[in-house]
Amino acid sequence: MRVLILTLGSRGDIEPFMALAQGLAAGGHATSLCAPASFEPSIVARGIDYRRMDDGFVELARSLEGQAAFEDMGQLYGALKTVVRLLPKADALQDLLLDDAWSAAQAVRPEVIVFHPKLPGALDIAEALDVPVVMAPLFPQFVPTSAFPTLGFPDLPLGPGYRRATYRLMHAIAAKVGMGPVRRFRSRRGWAKRPAGMGPMTDHRGRAVPILHGFSPLLCPRPADWPASAVVTGHWPLPVSHAELPSGLSAFLDDGPPPVYVGFGSMAGRDPERTAREVVAALRRAGCRGLLAGGWGGLAPIEAADDLLFIESAPHDALFPRVAAVVHHGGAGTTHAGLRAGRPSVLCPFFGDQPFWGRRVEALGVGPTPVPQRALDAARLAHALQHVMSDPGMGKRAAALGAALTREGGVAKAVSMLEGVAR
To answer: With a threshold of 0.70, does the pTM exceed it?
Structure first.
């Protein structure tokens, strides 16, 4: 079968779909991945057919305005302000993204479309081509359940009805705020208005859209009240890279006890210098060697010392097995990567799914209580690190979970499910 994958976001939104594309290709399926242009080199390097998507969202996320938005999104009021402030720019960018996705679809002529929820116009493209479409979230976000509220809502003691209602509210907000670009996209092509009842989880014929969740049920069990159309396969990690770490990094790792890794990936606040100072103070207060990763600018560079090293980035699969613990923002990809390596995790979430994964890590006993970014300081982070280092049971639980995660075969299960959709 011919498969077109549409995804958008940062590294954590792209790499799982790269893994899925490789798994589909290994199964004999012609697979194309349409993703932001800045990821083209890494996609092509893995032998995946790349289709271009505008890079505007990535550039916005890396801008000073985007960094400020990350910091504000941690609370509901700040999130609402951010949406209002950035909506005009995001709307214009969505116009470009939908045009690029349509160009890719016309070139590939797919028999199945798989899409990240950030690209709801994939439903419309699938309608135009009359092909099956599969939504692929990387965390439990869209399908209503009484087990927990949707992301961004507190788990108030109001019972299962409240939890399910948060999903209806989220769907209503998304339809009100996010459908403008989709309506313009259809209008530019002379298509009729969206059929009544289409989206976010039903296609143009009113059928349930299959929803393929790329996270581990070991971290979050599949809710019992989900419909059969909602599947949890397990995480989609890239094949082991066998990459060699830079010589300076290898020497630092060899020159003492395993350090604590600290990195916030694509997340960055207004003051990365202050964040780096607090992190360094916390590491020294806890008596840990530290390895700080700058990522997209969440941590400013620091001066190297016997107990500290700053790097821009390094492959997680090669690095994480050699550290004592992983301190990170709590994105789905980094959460799974740290735990796959069998290492305890300290999550410092900004917004979105990150607080959710922080609560799951704590509940599983493989990390302490999360330290939200808005409350991150040396004292709180040092306390969390001391908890990790003084609790041998946490390390044993993380190691056992890591071994189980490496066996779950999420990509193979996803490929099998997609083959069933195409039949």
So the answer is: yes
